[in-house]
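User: Quick sanity check before I run a bigger batch. Here is a single chain. Can you write out its predicted 3D structure?
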Amino acid sequence: MSDGHLYKRIMIKLSGEALAGDGKMGFDTSIVSKLALEIKAAREMGIEVALVIGGGNFFRGSLGEKLGIERATGDYMGMLATVMNALAMQDSLEKNGVPSRVMSAIEMRAIAEPYIRRRAIRHLEKGRVVILSAGTGNPFFTTDTAASLRAIELGAQILMKATKVDGVYDKDPEKFPDAVRIDSISCLDVIQKQLRVMDLTAISLCMDNNLPIVVFNLFADNSILRVARGENVGTTIS
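Assistant: Done. Predicted structure follows.
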């Protein structure tokens, strides 16, 4: 599958924690720059790129609950964190000569366009990278679910989940040294085995709409480009 690129339009899901690098909070500008250059290379191959970024490097709803903040309020705070990440990503892309647009599911017109499906598709068709922030705009939904939903809405051919590990394992590789990486698995098996890849809503959406997912290591060299070209990288969930 590595002869010529396979995908015309891709959705990349980045966790906020990935942007923080070795730090637990904030973002590492070298990681953001590396990502921007890889996305630029994909764009130069004619691949249309949409991005959903989490906000866990600043705030997440579950943290709010521990602080005594109501869950829905905490989730809205987490959505605002994703907007900060989206603006940082846009800044890095634009500095590297890649036109991009930040769209938000929560209206804040001074810094982001409101998310409108047809407008997002038009941006992609014009070669702009579309960075989708504020999740789905609803509490109780994760950014994984937002990435699945937007990928299906925008007609992406694959959902690429960029993480700190190089795929899906049969058990937690950080706790179990004998954990085995899985090359490919079905959505149903992920659900039945309760593998913590994405939340069940996100996996179910992909399963119902025949959207394949690739889980891969963001920090491996040219990983985004290699997945976009259809190379056998990470774990494929279909």
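The two ends are 16 Å apart (CA to CA).

User: Great, the batch can go ahead then.
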